[in-house]
Design brief:
The protein is mainly alpha-helical and 185 residues long. 80% of the residues lie in helices and 0% in strands. It is globular, with a radius of gyration of 16 Å.
């Protein structure tokens, strides 16, 4: 499976029910301006995942390739387990609403994504695939696939998705990729 396709699918599935998706829902219901919110999510994700992929690429050159494949495989398996834990939005924005929909979304999305499952997945994907740009584009597309419907449709979309099934499918995909990487290294 190509870096672009796998990055898109894995992050799209991992993002469902994630705290950044909950943040997107909160911002959509608060501001009711989907275009600036979607644009800000895109830019924040490109910046955040660009940095994450650069780190993954750096680690790819820093770490011995014999160990790197084991580390990446273990990372995929751990991501699969982590995906099974549902996220909750801990802090809701209060004073930031005065910044407007675009700036509030841009800042909050970038900050909330730091250390998030999808950012860690981007690092792991960038260490596994040598196509860094495809990973960045794929993970960003995955974020948009998961978040744009929530921004546009709001609460309806979030309430109707089978989150438990999606989490288990995503976890299975990450674990299978990790096991395959272990078997073929």
């Amino acid at each position: 499976m190509s870096a672009l396709l796998f990055s898109t699918l894995s992050v799209a599935l991992a993002e469902i029910g994630d705290k950044t998706q909950l943040l997107a829902l909160l911002l959509a219901t608060r501001f009711k301006k989907p275009v600036p919110i979607i644009l800000a999510i895109t830019i924040a994700t490109l910046a955040n995942h660009g940095l994450a992929a650069a780190l993954g690429n750096y680690l790819n050159h820093l770490i011995n390739p014999n160990y790197l494949s084991w580390i990446a495989a273990t990372g995929f398996i751990l991501m699969g387990i982590w995906v099974l834990i549902p996220d909750k939005l801990d802090d809701t924005p209060t004073k930031t609403h005065q910044w407007g929909a675009f700036l509030t979304t841009l800042v909050l999305f970038f900050l909330v994504e730091i250390g998030d499952k999808t950012q860690i997945a981007t690092i792991v994907l960038a260490t596994h695939y040598s196509a860094t740009l495809q990973v960045i584009i794929g993970t960003t597309m995955g974020m948009l696939l998961a978040n744009v419907p929530v921004v546009v449709l709001g609460q309806f979309a979030a309430d109707k998705l089978p989150l438990k099934w999606i989490r288990w499918t995503t976890a299975s995909l990450f674990i299978l990729l990790g096991v395959a990487a272990l078997l073929f290294t």
